[in-house]
Amino acid sequence: MRPYRRTSIRWLLRTVLLALLDMMAFVVSLLAVGMMVPLSGYGLDVTFPPALLGFAATATATLLVFRIYRQSWRFFGFAHAAAVIGLGLLGSALGWTLLILGQKATLGLGLVAAALTQWMLATGLLIGLRSLRRIARENMAGTKIRLGTAVRADLPQALLIGPAQWAMSVIELMRAEDDPQFAIAGILLPSEADVIDRIGGVRVLGSHDKLVEIAKAAEAQGRPFSLAITLDDGMYLGNREMTRLTHRARELGLELSRIKNHWSQILQRPGAEDPKNLSVPDLLGRNEFEMQGDVITRQIEGQSVLVTGAGGTIGGELARQLASFRPSHLILLELCEFNLYSIEMTLREKYPDLEIHPELCDIRSRDEVHRVFEKHRPAVVYHAAALKHVPIVELNPCAGVHTNIIGTKHIADAVTEFGARAMVQVSTDKAVNPVGMMGATKRVGELYSQALDMCGVDDPDAPRFMTVRFGNVLGSSGSILPLFRRQLEEGKPLTVTHPDIERFFMTVREAVQLILQSSASALAEDLERGSIYVLDMGKPVRIVDLAYRLIAQYGLEPEVDVEIQYVGLRPGEKLYEELFDDCEEEVPSKIGGIFEARSHPIPLPFINKSIDRLFEAVKRNDAAEAERIAHHLVKIPSSGARFDLITPKKKPSLVDTAATP
To answer: pTM of the prediction?
Structure first.
């Protein structure tokens, strides 16, 4: 069925005009044949006006009946030309039939030759008229593409890199542009073996392997390319070739535009498989940690569970995995509205029967935290909200203290006040023997949770406060792997702070499984209080080795295809990370693949007063005092200190301290 289309006056006028032009073509072709061939011998007079007009009207009506005028002359192409040739033949045949029957002419070979000659002349005129209209459009739009040269001097010259059919489609799109942004001046095909010299009037300059040679030659001739456009559908160029092409374009100063496979997006079908899927065993040199789900199910199923920082990398993965264990309620606490919306929508689509409660809340506000706890009364709390970027926290120590220490205290205090069963504190290896403020603030959060946990030694009903510590998370926001991948894809050198710097790495999935496995096991088996749970992550990985392995997975050669640049340690950054503090004892855990770290806790009254003192420094925006107290606190467990008041700089009675014996 054809859709109903309303006929407009403009369309009628256009059709009449085009039909008159075609009638003129048939008239001229018939008169020309009449002058070349003596048709009177066959009893025909083609100059007789009624006969002439009848012939032209019949032939033109054939074009009209077969809807040839639905096609625009401005975009005249091969398919349109083929239709004109075929319908012109049919129309001329009908016209000649009408002439012969009307004038009772005698048939003969000369008459057949005259008819074929007329048809060829008419076809040439019909195609010529349409070609002139397209040429006029291209010249008026200023988009005619010529060999190696931009028509307009102010347009940048572009180089197409891709298969011939794709290149032709891009050229056709450019011809349809009324206001082009560039002019296509050359084409590079997949193989040097291609014998094509031109595509759409644009010169084929060679294969994509000759990009450097061709770009330098164009620059030497005074017509440099400024833009390269390539097909990036995962099929034309492999991952290795695309990355190498990106690096070459960057070295030449070319802007590289990569056109993806848009059909897969239009049809809502998955495109080609991502060639950049990373092998975790190859990158880390070990297998991923696997959890036992039954023990987690027993602790989570039917419980009201709250996740702070639910929109972050760790918090979001925590929420997704917790949802699979069928809690009665899942409370998502997050400060960023968009992140909260994203994780909520993801969970609602995957778990439509789960009761989900999104809560916009700033953990730095005690009142907001208490509002959420009073409303939902969670049984288990997973505390993942934190500021974690080392250089940023180093430059903003008060913000780090406010979120990582004061915010943690607000959550932990609410757990106690509202009778939650347990709180799981997400920590980091940067809290071990910290040199920067990010690590120091996370370590104080560990110490506060440990102090609260130890308060319940003699009370089996007291809530548990557990800390889970792990290394860098591959792929998390702000981590090294997304940076390396972006630098590779943009053709830039990979930046490493120091040739000897090394870190413990794990995947997001592993990190969350560690949190769930250790906390659920500790609750199920009532493990010793005050312990910090640490994943056995094997040996640390040198960052430069991680860069080398990633480059190799892209099919490239380090220091040949991709340069490594050393940029120096950042503020608050250590050369080596550790999993256990100097004062901690490493103890094998009953949980497979997990260790326990046991250390000397700080008495709760002392750490409470010290945190109050930190809060005062934050309110005054006294960064120096906040740093002094935080770093002093993290040294206390290994100092053998007795817990006396910290002597402040100006007001001795207000600050807690620990004097060294």
So the answer is: 0.59
